[in-house]
Amino acid sequence: MSWTDPAAWADLAAGVLMVLGALLSLVAAIGVLRFPDVLTRMHSATKPQVLGLLLVVLGLALRLRDPSSIAVLGLVVLFQMTTAPVASHMIGRAAFRAGQVRDDLLVTDELSDRLPRLDEPRGAP
């Protein structure tokens, strides 16, 4: 491996990005298991996991260097970036309506006046 070869530098950067992405995904999984309520778990499942996936995809793009593979990876990023925020929003809204959000952990509550809660709690505690 010659350090003057740009492909060698791209492979090294790809490896570093993939390892960092895997570590961020691991942190997201630990956060989902350890955080106390729905909203913090939702945050942990969305933000570091999406960033971890982006880093892994960027590392794969640097490693593969094939236009068709990079196009498929671009579609993966596009679908992840459109579905993760929507899914998190819907989970948070459903948890709030079902009374699964801990009020003592909220800094501000902008939904209580606008969104009625359901009479019976649903979902996991």
Automatic annotation (TrEMBL):
<dbReference type="InterPro" id="IPR005133">
    <property type="entry name" value="PhaG_MnhG_YufB"/>
</dbReference>
<feature type="transmembrane region" description="Helical">
    <location>
        <begin position="12"/>
        <end position="33"/>
    </location>
</feature>
<feature type="transmembrane region" description="Helical">
    <location>
        <begin position="45"/>
        <end position="64"/>
    </location>
</feature>
<feature type="transmembrane region" description="Helical">
    <location>
        <begin position="70"/>
        <end position="92"/>
    </location>
</feature>
<dbReference type="Pfam" id="PF03334">
    <property type="entry name" value="PhaG_MnhG_YufB"/>
</dbReference>
<keyword id="KW-0812">Transmembrane</keyword>
<protein>
    <submittedName>
        <fullName>Monovalent cation/H(+) antiporter subunit G</fullName>
    </submittedName>
</protein>
<keyword id="KW-0472">Membrane</keyword>
<comment type="similarity">
    <text>Belongs to the CPA3 antiporters (TC 2.A.63) subunit G family.</text>
</comment>
<keyword id="KW-1133">Transmembrane helix</keyword>
